[in-house]
Amino acid sequence: MDARQDVVEFGTRRMLIVAAVMAATLMQTLDSTITNVALPTIQGNVGAGQQEATWVITAYTIAAIVVIPLTPWLQDRFGRRSYYVASIAGFTLASVMCGMSASLGTLTFWRIVHGRLPATVQYENDAPILASH
After folding, report:
1. Which of 12, 53, 100, 101 has its Cα between 20 and 30 A from that of 76?
2. 0.85 cut: is pTM over it?
3. Cα angle 16-22-28, degrees, rounded to a multiple of 5
């Protein structure tokens, strides 16, 4: 028996894997763009100027850029599937915390946490699909 056949999924499970990967990629893409659109509202809600509020976007971007090169090592260390699932769960939790933030400092902190987590989705968004086919 071929080792490749052991990981190939069929039927409903395959479709669920594809749907989950697509949803995670969509969440990450929307999240990285929606903050730019919502920046004026964020400024008003936390009482920040434009210079201060742009740190919300910058923090997310820098955190993602720092983690992307570490992603292969983290996947080897914790397992690709475990790391991917933990990243998506953490991303969702960080999204909730960003929504609940009442100050610019808290929002920036959660955006840093938030930016670290979708690096897996950016780095390997097609690997789970390829592994299951």
Report:
1. 12
2. no
3. 135
> Using CA atoms, how far apart are residues 112 and 107, in angstroms rounded to an integer?
9
Q: How many CB atoms lie within 10 A of CB 90?
A: 16
- R_g of the chain computed on alpha carbons: 17
Domain count, the chain: 1
Query: How deeply is 45 buried, as exposed, middle or buried, from its count of CB atoms within 10 A (0-12, 13-18, 19+)?
Result: middle
Which domain, by its residues, includes 110? Answer: 3-132
Cβ neighbours for 115, distance < 8 A, ≥ 6 positions apart: 59, 60, 61, 62, 63, 64, 67
Predicted pLDDT of residue 93: 92
